[in-house]
Amino acid sequence: MTKNIANTAVNDHVSLPDYKRSTLVSRIVHLGFGAFHRAHQALFTDEVARNSNSDWGICEVNLFGGEELVASLRAQDHLYTVAEKGGDNTLVKMIGVVTESLHPEMDGVDAVLEKMAAPETAIVSMTITEKGYCADPATGTLDKSNGLIMTDLANPTSPRSAIGYIVQALRLRRDRGLQPFTVLSCDNIQENGHVAKAVVLEFAGLVDVELQQWIQEQVTFPSTMVDRIVPAATEEMFTEIAELVGVSDPCGIACEPFRQWVIEDNFVAGRPNWNLAGAEFVEDVRPYEEMKLRMLNGSHSFLAYLGYLAGYPFISATMADPAYKQVAFDMMMKGQAPSLNMPEGTDLENYARLLIDRFTNPSLKHQTWQIAMDGSQKIPQRLVPSLQYHLNQGSAFTWQALGIAGWMRYISGQDESGKAIDVCDPMVNELQAICDEHGLNVSVVPALLAVEKIFPASVGQNSMVIDAVSTAYQSLLDHGARTTVAALVPKQEAA
Fold it and tell me: Sheet harboring 260-264: ordered strands across?
């Protein structure tokens, strides 16, 4: 027998919400209704509702773009599909925990602020990518030269940035005598809660010092570590979901079966029992963040730049190349793992092998181009800290050097066959001006390493780093990415 959702029959194997959606309350306002959130935090919250009498619902907000997505979500009663694609089978779930949605272009800025300031709102969570925090990646402080921040500081009651929205909503709550909400960052940023707190407090101090003090004393900013591979949506994916569900779903998303969420348990106004869905609450998230950022995200970026240059469109395609697969594992274990300080009993080799299996999953079409986006924001978190560790220890940082060289070659805007690369990065104009000045010449290496928003002077101006990255970059020019990566395979492995 078929079941019905949003007045349309769906296939029997689709797992539908088994709770009363009418009892849900929008206790969470989430900024950034993107692919990752749909397959991660929203899914966790949905599973809590399935496993308990939870009334935690989510109001989804897109601050920039995505109006069609919000309109589609509303048209299907805020239901959408998540397809968890393993190597052998696919589980299809209909997520029902989203209660409402807002967009400032569709509903007005005040509607978003009022929802954030509503008495029942206990958490404002975010998946807004690194650049959404408007922070200087080198210092973690508010980037007051950011266009959105400049606009919001001039008119704080009608914000555009996520930071401006949070500060204004907290001002409304304070003025109305309401308790604050928790600000929950779910982005891949090391100590993301600390970064969110720093930029929110600095922004608040520039508009209202008393508000800044109130936020400092009253608001909590727990850090989180999130992990799930969620490829960008494609037409092929939408077609597959339509076949799996029995009806098209423009809000649907596909992802891997693996998921992880480690959360600092520091919530000022309550939280869902996400542990019922497999989340782990801890006192200190930092070791887990560093493990994931360096071993998973660092190797992902390495594979993205060097895979794209080699002509591999997907991560799974790079992993089908034995050299890339071996070098990715070596990077995790020899390049990244030694820089970590993990709790006793953590098995990093097992974690690395799990990552290799996840990257190799042929069911996921995770684009190298997608992972290569926003490199100026990612490299300071994913590659620089471990490189600094090896400098301090006097040990090899071959993999980090090649990863950085691959990024430099990528942002030149031209691939190895001479085709244009669509480089997406908030610093793209500054970076490509440097590349254009030098051309495809190794002289670009010290110029890019001198960009202190990405590379602190202790790294970017270190002669050993300049030499190592220059050598790797020259090899990419002379031999190409595949040959350069293959040269890192230990001889006994190659034999």
Answer: 224-227, 260-264, 280-282
**Lookup: tokens for 215:** 């936020």
Residue 6 pLDDT grade (very low, low, confident, very high; cuts 50, 70, 90): low
Residue 4: how many other CB atoms lie within 10 Å:
9
Provide the pLDDT for residue 2: 37
> Tell me: the pLDDT tens digits for 153-200?
999 999 999 999 999 999 999 999 999 999 999 998 888 999 999 999
- Find, among 395, 248, 397, 371, the residue nearest to 317 by Cα: 371
**Quick one: pLDDT at residue 232?**
84
The tens digit of pLDDT for each residue in 95-127 reads: 999 999 999 999 999 999 999 999 999 999 999
- Whether residue 88 has pLDDT greater than 90: no
Burial class (CB in 10 A: 0-12, 13-18, 19+), 60: buried
Q: Which domains does the chain have, with CATH numbers?
A: 3-282 (3.40.50.720), 286-494 (1.10.1040.10)
Q: Model-level pTM?
A: 0.81
For residue 243 the two structure tokens come to: 């076949």
CA 401 to chain centre: 23
DSSP 339-381: G--PPTT--HHHHHHHHHHHHH-TT---BHHHHHTTHHHHHHH
pLDDT attached to residue 5? 55
Gap between the Cα atoms of 403 and 410, Å rounded: 10
Closest C-alpha to 131, from 337, 472, 428, 482: 428
d(CA 131, CA 47): 30
3-state secondary structure (DSSP) of residue 55 = coil
Say how many C-beta atoms besides its own lie within 10 A of residue 1's C-beta: 4
Distance CA 451, CA 456 (A): 8
Residues 6+ apart with CB under 8 A from 310: 318, 321, 324, 416, 480, 481, 482, 485
Distance CA 183, CA 240 (A): 36
Q: How far apart are the first and last CA of the chain?
A: 57
* CA distance linking residue 416 with residue 494, whole number of Å: 24
What confidence category does residue 493 fall into, taking pLDDT thresholds of 50, 70 and 90? low
User: With contact defined as beta carbons under 8 Å apart, do 224 and 186 qualify?
Assistant: yes
Q: What token pair was written down for 355? A: 């990552």
Instruction: Report the alpha-carbon angle 388-391-393, nearest 5.
Output: 110
